[in-house]
Amino acid sequence: MTTIGFIGLGNMGGPMAANLLKAGHQVRGYDLSEDALLELKQAGGVPASSIATVVSGADVVVSMLPAGTHVRKVYMGDDGILANVSKGTLLIDSSTIDVQSARDVAAAASDAGMHMVDAPVSGGVGGATAGTLTFMVGGADEAFAAAKPYLDIMGKAIIHAGGAGNGQAAKICNNMMLGIQMISVCEAFALAEKLGLDHQKLYDISSTASGQCWSLTSYCPVPGPVEASPANRDYQPGFAAAMMLKDLNLSQDASKAVGAQTPLGKQATALYNAFCDEGNEGVDFSGIINKLR
Ligand code: NAD
């Protein structure tokens, strides 16, 4: 049995911590939310009142926080993880954050004598609950090997993307593709409607032709063709438009930082920004079809 400190027990972190508990590990948790701590207790974990209590003596620390500013503070702040953890502890940050913050925190962790990986996820709350997340992992070979048994409990596909920050780079690039592709599928259905082409007919043809992609075949933005799609549930998320916008903004910040050309990523970011501004932050990201019609 391993003692795991878990920081950030929200929509994703809560069920991930529950899966570590189910696998027989001891989990101590810390979150700013009392409700999140109560849920951890109900799942069999030990809630704590500070980062220091959670991480001191822990073998592994996992964090699942909103953004880079939170991760920097929780790891590098005066009362943070690096100030309180024992040397040699394995650190796993699964938050989706900017590449530079991931690399800065990993460098500080390495200087303090820790193994660390950035391990953002794909798969949403459903994947976190079922333990079927995809982890995109950045870090040294030794750190990846040490983290893999724990990631295996919370996920089904664990992919080593290279050195520190490369997990975040993979996540940002993947989700930029997703945002662009979802808009392309929505535009095609909106055009088909005006041309008098039936939704199911377009689906049947494009799902076996060169327009095929995940946004069409697994997450079709019109009701009917794909039963599990949020389109069949009035666009309840799923993956909220605000989360898509967060990841697209990260892609554009990264793109600017390294001088990459991502004109469609830029346009997708502008469209999701406008969609969210119109009060649709909590709507599934495939609901952008209603804006494009
Ligand atoms: P969430 O807001 O539900 O959870 C974040 C938790 O962190 C909250 O409970 C909050 O109280 C806690 N927190 C914030 N600052 C803290 C601090 N200083 N100390 C301790 N706890 C703190 O968010 P979520 O949906 O669980 O997402 C977490 C991360 O996972 C994000 O980076 C998100 O982009 C990423 N992600 C989310 C999804 C999804 O579908 N929700 C999918 C993939 C990736």
Automatic annotation (TrEMBL):
Pathway: Amino-acid degradation; L-valine degradation
Protein name: 3-hydroxyisobutyrate dehydrogenase
PROSITE patterns reported in the protein's UniProt record: 3_HYDROXYISOBUT_DH
Residue ranges of domain 6-phosphogluconate dehydrogenase NADP-binding in the record: 3-162
Catalytic activity: 3-hydroxy-2-methylpropanoate + NAD(+) = 2-methyl-3-oxopropanoate + NADH + H(+)
Family: Belongs to the HIBADH-related family.
GO molecular function annotation: 3-hydroxyisobutyrate dehydrogenase activity; NAD binding; NADP binding
